[in-house]
Every structure is written in structure tokens, then in C-alpha cells.
Amino acid sequence: MSKSNTFENDLLLLIFNNTDIALIGDAAGLQNSAAAGSLYVGLHTADPGEAGTQATSETAYTGYARIAVARSAGGWTVTTNSVSPTANVDFGECTASPGGALTHFSVGTDASGAGKLLYSGTLTPNITMATGVIPRVKTTSTITED
Predict the structure, then answer these.
(1) What residues contact residue 8 under an 8 Å CB cut-off, 6+ apart?
(2) Fewest CB within 10 angstroms: 54, 75, 130, 144, which?
(3) Cβ distance 106 to 73 under 8 Å?
(4) Per-residue pLDDT tens for 92-118?
(5) Distance of alpha carbon 134 from alpha carbon 88, whole angstroms
(6) What does the alpha-carbon distance between residue 112 and residue 54 come to, in Å, rounded to a whole number?
(7) CA angle, corner 51, sides to 3 and 34, nearest 5?
(8) 145 vs 12: CA distance, rounded Å
(9) Residue 138 and residue 146: Cα distance in Å, rounded?
(10) Cα-Cα-Cα-Cα dihedral sign, residues 9, 85, 75, 87
(11) How many angstroms separate the CA atoms of 130 and 97, rounded?
(12) How much is the CA Rg of the chain, to the nearest whole Å?
């Protein structure tokens, strides 16, 4: 069984833009958060998988930290059952210990630590790490509900 296209888009709007979903539950619908907060984009050297956390296969190059992106239309663009960052997500420059190539990105709930992994996907192309590299998740990177 699958979700309808309308509900897939509504779900992405709730998660990424903090927008209510009407007609679910009481008269007010499925409500947004009082304080929208942020979601955190991370980078990985392998697929964290559906059973993983934000820390599973997460990169640890010197200069890396997850990036907070606001749960709003200013942070995320939701359209036709897909979501993309509204602006490129640029990570800290690698200043030492580049580690392996970056193959996946994730979106989760925590700034650090295990955290709840909401979505993950492949970085295309993969990012070859070296000192001086500034990894970027582009606005063309999409998450699709289907």
C-alpha cells in the first residue's frame, strides 16, 4: 500500500516546512511545532541504512560538523513530493585527516551524537576528500516520498 501524492507532499511540508496537515485528527488537523527549530544535514562515508542513526558511517574529518537548516520554506523547498535544500549546504573545510570519500548525506534531528535519522541518500557525484576540500550538498539534491 502506498500514500497518495497529496499526502506525501503534505508530510514533507510538515517535516521540512513546519506546515499543518489539514483534515487529520481534530478540526485543526495535524499541527505544526510551536517552535519550528532546525533539521541537521550530515555527511557519511557509507549508507547509514534504514536501521542506522545520524552517527552511522558519519564522516569525522577535521573541520566537520552537521549543518542546521531551518524547518521553513527558507530552508527547504518542497514541491511535487520532493524536498531539496533552498540553498547549498556547505560544510566546514577539511583541515586534516580527510578520511574516506563521502558517499551519502542525511537529514536528522540532532546537532551531534546518534540522533534520529529521518532521511538519507546518495551524494552524486561522491566527494573525494582531501585537505582544503569544502563539501557541499547542492540544491539539486532531493529527497522524494513515494
Answers:
(1) 81, 145, 146
(2) 130
(3) no
(4) 999 999 999 999 999 999 999 999 999
(5) 12
(6) 8
(7) 60
(8) 8
(9) 22
(10) negative
(11) 8
(12) 16
